[in-house]
Amino acid sequence: MAVDTRECVEAKLALRQALAACGGNTKDETVIAAIENLRSLNPNPAPTRNGKLLDSNWVLISAPNFPGGERLASGKFAYTLGRLAFNMFQPAKLKVVIDRVSQPVFLLGNGEQRSHDIVVEFTTADENYPQISGVVRNLGVCEPISDTVLQVKFTGGILAPQDSTNMDEWQAVFGQQQQNAKRSLKENLMLGLFRLMFGLVASQTMNSETGEVKFIMERSPKGRLEILYLDEELRITCGEKGTILVSQRQ
Predict the structure, then answer these.
(1) What's the CA gap between 58 and 53, in Å, rounded?
(2) pTM above the 0.85 mark?
(3) Angle at which helices 29-39 and 5-21 pack, to 10 degrees?
(4) Which of 60, 110, 111, 198 is the most buried (most CB within 10 A)?
(5) How far is CA 140 from CA 76, 79, 156, 177, 240, in A?
(6) Is the per-residue pLDDT at 34 higher than 90?
C-alpha cells in the first residue's frame, strides 16, 4: 500500500501537538488517537529488520516512564535517584530533575544485536546538596525476534558526572556509596530480592579519575519491546506493560 507523505507529515504534527498539550502523557486520549492514526500510515511494516532506520541516538519527547515521578511547573519531571536505576546508586533518595532521556541504538557487530542503553541526564534539585549535573546510563542490548518486536535485556548501569560538573562537589555527594546507604527495611528486602533474582553486583568504590560508579546484572531479565512506528524522524515503542514512548531522531 502506497503511503501518502503529506498525510504522514500532518499525522506527526498532530501527535507532537497532542504531546505538547498534555505534558507528554501517552495515556492521554488525544495522544492515543494521534498514535493510532500515525500507525495506520506506517511506511515500515517490518521496523526491526530495517537497520538503517533503527540506528540513531533517539531522544525522548514523551514523558519519562520511571515510577514515582513528579511533573514540575517547568514541565520537567523530578524523581529520586534510586528510581532511575534499581536503587543501586546512593544517595537513593536524592531528588533529581531530568533534563533529557536518550537512547543510542547502534549495531554491536554481533549478528543483529544492537545497543539499547537508556541515558538519563539530570540535575540535582535537593536543598541538602549542591546543584550538580550527572548522567545515569542503564546499559542494555536488543535484537529482533519478529518483524515488529525486539527482545531487550539490561546488563548494568553507570552513574557519572557531566563534563561541566565540579569533581570535588561530585565526589562529596556520590563518593561514599556504601556509607550513604541508609535504607529502610523494605528497601533492603527489595534490594536483596533484586540481587538474588538478577545477580546485581554494585561497585564498592568510585573511579577517582572519571567519577563513575557502576553496577552489573549477571542474570539479566529479558523483556519485549514492540515498535509501533518507525521512520526517518520518529520512533514509537510499546513495552510489555503497555507503556508507550515517543522518541525523535537526534
Answers:
(1) 11
(2) yes
(3) 160
(4) 60
(5) 25, 21, 7, 23, 16
(6) yes
